Request: fold
Amino acid sequence: MSFPAGPVPSVAVTAVRDMLVQQPSHFRPFPASRKRDCFSVLAMSQFRLKKLDLGGFVNPRILRDHTKRRTFEQYEPERQALRYAIRNTSLPQRVRAQAQLQLANMHSNTRSTQIKNRCVAGGTARSVIRAFRLGRFQFRMQALAGELPGVRKASW
Reply:
């Protein structure tokens, strides 16, 4: 089966995108509460911001994570619209196939699977406590110092 050449009608994709309810994503950008000494880092990738303002210890992995989160947040409605168009059986087969091609050709940073939870203080990716977005050691140090609200050492 062959499909006539040509782009996906933008009206169909726009209509599908408008139908979707945009819900807040659970992949939050880098939290503003963790900013310390502000300095700017020039970004080099096409998906990075021209100027990035982060504080404290800045590690290349943190920059990549920030970039991936921003890119995902920016392209999420478009990905949802394309996925809806692919699954919608009432649309013509040609439109569905072209939507599938567009989705496959999108950059890999637009996928949610590329995002990894990282410690906002040190940048480590292992044993990150989601509620505080801190690694286990940073969580322990800040909890013992009394910097985390509602957290104290267990005693009975």
User: Anything to note?
Assistant: Helices lie at 10-19, 60-87, 93-105, 136-144. Strands lie at 38-42, 51-55, 128-129, 134-135.
